[in-house]
Amino acid sequence: MTQTDSRVTHLPTGSYYTPSGEYDDLYRRSMEDPEGFWAEQAESLDWFKPWEKVLDWQAPYARWFVGGKLNLSYQCLDRHVQTEVKNKVAFYWEGELGETQVLTYNEMYRLTNNYAAALKRLGVKRGDKVALYLPMIPALPVFMLACARLGAIFTVVFSAFSGQALADRVEDVGAKVIITSSGMHRRGKILPLKENAVEAAVKCPCVEKIVVVKHTGHHTEMDPDRDVWLDDILAGVDEYVAPEAMDANDPLFVLYTSGSTGKPKGILHGTAGYALWIAKTLQWAFNPDQKSVFWCTADIGWITGHSYVVFAPLELGLTSVMYEGAPDFPAIDRWWQLIAKYGVTIFYTSPTAIRMFMRHGEEWPAKYDLSSLKSLGSVGEPINPEAWLWYYRNIGHERISISDTWWQTETGGFMISPTPGIQPHPLKPGSATKPMPGVDVAVLDPDGKELPNGQTGFIVIRKPWPGMLLDIYQNQELYQQTYWSRFPGYYLPGDFCMKDQDNFLWLLGRADEVIKVAGHRISTAELESSIVGHSAVAEAAACSRPDEVKGEAIILFVTLRKGTDPSPEIKAELTRHLRATIGALATPEEIFFVNLLPKTRSGKIMRRLLKAVATGATVGDTSTLDDGASIDEARAAFEELK
Ligand code: WTA
After folding, report:
1. What three-state secondary structure class fits 118?
2. Which of 21, 217, 611, 638 is the 20 to 30 Å CA partner of 317?
3. Is the CB of 507 within 6 Å of ligand 1?
4. Whose Cα sits closest to atom 12 in ligand 1?
5. Is the shortest distance between the CB of 516 and ligand 1 below 6 Å?
6. What CA–CA distance (Å, rounded) separates 177 from 147?
């Protein structure tokens, strides 16, 4: 089905909605008087000290609620334990092996205080950096909250990143402590997280301690000077730790993500604006109520998990499901089983997961009672209309709304999404629909002129919003250059977008060198810099081609140094190298060996041409190419494989 065919306006029926107003009115107000609008919204936070100024906008830096003081762990826990939310379930946790844990708000509160006390005893204080390299176990959100409580800046590193990738992030952020677990379960295997943490600690002199959460039973070597078990530092601790009064714009966390450079950049988020943005956007996009059981399947190692597994649901006092394992282990029905078991009402996942389920057939979800569901969501990459409709029919039973949420690590929370929490929303399969209140979107041509509806161009955001990143950690220049230089004064997300005749927005993928593999963000430069680090490789170019399940798949074109010939062994070796230096998400779909890479006369690799070859598209204009033979060669390598 093409995108044009799919533009059927659809308004889900059902009595679920309790709209809180009219979208158009709210949106208009947020545009006409942003400061008044956000001041009103910010009443929903608990302030230790009220702000003096709603917005200080010195482009490209926005500072919200200047002068205000608060603490995000207080927002998520302390204020709830003073109410009937105290004994409500915060998390239903389930491990891959089927073990379970039920954590109430009160238990989360107690654990957070104790973990904060233990960290304090290790010498962690306000402003220190802590790296969290943990699987999806309760200790991860508890440590994030404990760091927020102490005012320590945390950086969560996705557990599928390698020891080297962890080291890169630990070093950049300057972490004093790495918190990890003995290992993690993935599809029946145990992955050695602690060993990776040791690799990072050895490479980074900033690391003083490794705290280890006992999670897998296998033997773990402990260095008595550096390594401590969480259980040991918690022994005998049962105390209240007063939450630090953080400045509204104090940094909360750094989360590394890929951009156009070989090194991931540290996206720095603040406290008040971020806290407000994620809570409001969750309400607007999913319309939860106090009986909701929310399940965001994202790993906490990505922004989706930070904002919508940990902080926003806790701020709103919701009950969430948290699951450690893979969706297809032990069988492809694991998620549907969990929805039925916990009575999940809001289910939020990725197009890659939906396409994987589609491939296995609708008989799997059909075995389970999914009638508790009231709202569905999608995130991470464009959702194709076929996948949208499959999700709508087989999971939502044509009864409930889908919120396709478009946003980024940098934006903190949702930017474009249906907003059933404001008003019932007409939907079009494949479109993220309309901007959130406060989000001023335009679609521009390469010269910065606004495009008429129906044409594809660069999406920009013309006003600051509360969830906006504070900066790139320790790299103001890169911050300005990446997001603010192409169209001065406007934030550039780096995606293509088209606004249709009804003003619905269609997000059409990245306009830069970022690849989305199964929704995970990785850049061509990162892949290239990893692979040229292998002694057999002279030069390399990375690109992607569309993949039916993963959205995009990684393709590499490699020239080998003299003395190494192309072979299946060297291919396997290079794949191993990518996984060791970055992680499993860097696994290439194909590696092609060539003698020449297509380059411009000034020596720039023409990835556009390689991508065309890898996707079988016409190569187009090659007039700037230095040596036409290179493209014939790449094509021959590709054809040979077919
Ligand atoms: C893509 C993930 C289309 C987009 C929250 C963006 C999407 C990048 C959508 C950010 C969506 C995310 N429709 N594309 N609903 N959601 N993207 O930082 O290209 O991991 O720029 O944040 O994901 O990826 P990130």
Report:
1. helix
2. 21
3. yes
4. 380
5. yes
6. 11
pLDDT at 331 over 60: yes
Exposure b/e, 29-53, CB count within 10 A at least 16 = b: bbbeebeebbeebbeebebeeebee
Axis crossing angle, helix 34-41 with helix 272-286, rounded to the nearest 10 = 80
Radius of gyration of the chain (CA): 24
In terms of phi and psi (left: phi > 0; alpha: psi -120 to 50; beta: otherwise), the region of 343 is left
Residues β-bridged to residue 442: 460
- Work out which ligand 1 atom sits closest to the CA atom of 509: 19
Is the minimum distance from the CB of 382 to ligand 1 under 6 angstroms?
A: yes
Nearest to 145 by CA among 159, 130, 160, 135: 130
Task: Please list the alpha-helical segments (H only) found in 590-641.
Answer: 607-615, 629-641
pLDDT per residue as tens digits for the range 626-639: 777 777 887 887 77
What backbone torsions phi and psi does residue 101 show, to the nearest 5 degrees?
-150, 135
Which residues in 230-274 belong to E strands, given as ranges? Answer: 246-247, 253-257, 265-269
| Mutational pocket test of ligand 1: of 408, 505, 585, the residue with most ligand atoms within 8 Å of the beta carbon | 408
Nearest to 464 by CA among 63, 136, 50, 29: 63
**Residue 286 φ/ψ, nearest 5 degrees:** -125, -5
Q: Is the CB of 220 under 6 A from ligand 1?
A: no
User: What number is the average pLDDT over the span 340-354?
Assistant: 98
Q: Which ligand 1 atom sits nearest the alpha carbon of residue 382?
A: 3
- pTM here is 0.94
Which residues touch 580 (CB under 8 Å, ≥6 apart)? 162, 163, 164
Report how far residue 23's alpha carbon sits from residue 44's, in angstroms, rounded to the nearest whole number: 19
Query: Can you say whether the dihedral through the CA atoms of 356, 362, 367, 371 is positive or negative?
Result: positive
Strand order in the sheet with 375-379: 100-104, 89-94, 319-323, 293-296, 346-349, 375-379, 401-405
| Contact between residue 415 and residue 406 where contact means Cβ atoms under 8 Å apart | yes
ipTM of the complex: 1.00
Cis before 60? omega within 30:
yes
One DSSP character per residue, 535-571 reads TTEEEEEEEEEEETTTEEEEEEEEEEPTT----HHHH
In the block, tokens 């003003």 appear at 503
Per-residue pLDDT band at 8 (split at 50, 70, 90): very low
